[in-house]
Structures are given as C-alpha cells and as structure tokens.
Amino acid sequence: MFSVVICTYNPNGDLLQRVLDSVLGQDFPKDDYELILVDNRSASPVCDMEAVKSRSARLVCITEQQQGLAFARIAGVKLAKAGVVVFVDDDNILEPGYLGALKQLLEKHSEVAVWGPGHIEVEYPDGAPLWIRMHCAPLFQQKSKVYTQYGCVVGWPDYYPAGSGMVVKQEVLQEYIRQFQAGTLTATGRKGQSLASAEDSQIVWLAVKAGLAAGTSPSLQLKHVIPAKRLNRKYLSALNFGIAGSYRMALCEMFPEQKASFVKQGLLQKFSLLLRTYIKSKGNPVLCYRLYSIERAWFRGLEQSEP
After folding, report:
1. pLDDT tens for residues 284-304?
2. d(CA 239, CA 138)
C-alpha cells in the first residue's frame, strides 16, 4: 500500500483538480493506496474547495497551521498508513502508471529508500518565452533520464530526486520527523512567498547517512505545470538564490565537514561565468544579461548563507 501526500498553499483550483485526478486515476488498485491532502494555511481553506469536496470519498483533507512545506509534509506523514509515502506537489500531474512502476522498482531494488521521477516534462499552460524553454527548464526540474540510477554518496549527483513525486520509505521519514522536531534539522522548505527549499534534500541525505540509496527512474514520469507568473528573470533569479542558500545550510547541517568545501567566487570566476553565458546566448546582450543574472544568483545564495 502507498500513501500519497499532496501539500498545497493557495493553489489554483483548476490545476489542483488536475493533480487530484492524476492521483485518483492511477492504473493501480484503488484499495492499495490512499490520498492525503494537506492545506498549509491557504488564504481560502482548500478543504472547502469544490474540487476537493467532490472527491471527499477518495481522500482525507487536513489543514496544517504552521507554514512551511516541512511542517505540511510531516502532518501528512503522521496520518499515512502505508510503509511508503509518495509526495506530490500541487503542480505535479502524475502519469497513470506512476504507482504501478513504483511498485516494481521497490520490489526490484530493496536497498533504495528514496525514489523520484527520472522523466519530468515541464508544461507551460500559458505559453513560455523561447529563451526560458531553451535555457531554464532545468530550474523547473525538467529531466529525461534514460536509465534507472541510484547511489549513496554525499553531495547531490544528478540522479538524486527533488521533491516533485518523491517517494520515501517510512523508516527514513520517521527519523526525519524525529530530527526535525528535535531541532537538529531546520530546513522548512517553501514557506509563504519564500523560495527556500532543501527539506527534501535532507530527507535524501538521511537515507544516505543510514547507508541506504536514493535514485531516479525513467519509469516514474510526471508533468510539472508552470504558470506565467514564474516565467521571468526576476523570479528565476530569486528561485536560484533561494535554492542555493537553503541547499548550503541544509548540507552543512547534515555533513558539517562540508563547510570547508564552499568558496566565494572571485573576479576570475565571475568573468568565466560571464563568458560562458555570453557563449550560451550567442552574443545576444539581453539574453546574456538574463542568463548571467540567473546563474549568478546561485553563487550569491551560497555566499550569503554561510552557516
């Protein structure tokens, strides 16, 4: 059995309806999974939305008053009855075979405690500028893996899963909850308008520290739906800044010896970054400025988050 936990904050009603339908419409026995929806104190109660009430026979909806994605996830996990929890964001559309493919992966690879989708397609329902589709989709977690990959190493290899569609065994989650509530781990994830993250990274690293593996597989597929308000240089720079800063803090909490591995960008490194973005933009000054601003935001996030 699986417990699917959807955490949401001020969701778009039509999109949330699609997300719920993608979970409830899985090609998987209905009695073998449950759906828990956690409202992280939205301005309008999510549990009162028609898209939720009309599906109340198939899901449990609760409200977590403490804002922060970590708090919402913990609230969902505490209600979960299954030994494996699937986290779905409120802008993730699961492919119909997601749970079926997951069942096969768990049976085949018992040493892997955390899984994620190896194929994430970014969907732009309002359209997207060409420069964003060409250069910035990875910031929205776009990936297209060919092979199933997993491992158990410090750091963040490209096969480690991010939060979208992340699957975690309860043994890891219970240790995560214990350490988070004890104050050992402090990454709260998205909180209101904050673009910080890394609570999902700490879940992965807890598995790694326990000698368990984490990975992704192309058999797990979903769509990540990105609205127009996120498709601009300012938002993408803030996103990169928030991810980088929270990543560094979270990594150093888990592995204090990693503090020494971070160094500030000097003038040579900044010039090298500018040169790379100039080449990537093919000499277009406007595009070069956009790409440099977004990539430089990552390093500013690292530099300004010194533990």
Report:
1. 999 999 999 999 999 999 998
2. 12
Strands (E), 29-182: 33-39, 60-63, 84-89, 92-94, 112-123, 143-144, 149-151, 167-169
What residues does CATH 3.90.550.10 cover in the chain?
2-229
Please name the residue that has the structure tokens 């802008």: 91
Written as one letter, the residue type at 239 is L
Distance CA 162, CA 158 (A): 10
Question: What pLDDT sits at residue 122?
Answer: 98
Residue pair 187/65 in contact by the 8 Å Cβ criterion? no
- Separation between Cα atoms, residue 276 and residue 299, nearest integer Å: 15
pLDDT tens digit sequence for 82-128: 999 999 999 999 999 999 999 999 999 999 999 999 999 999 999 99
Domain boundaries 2-229, corresponding CATH code = 3.90.550.10
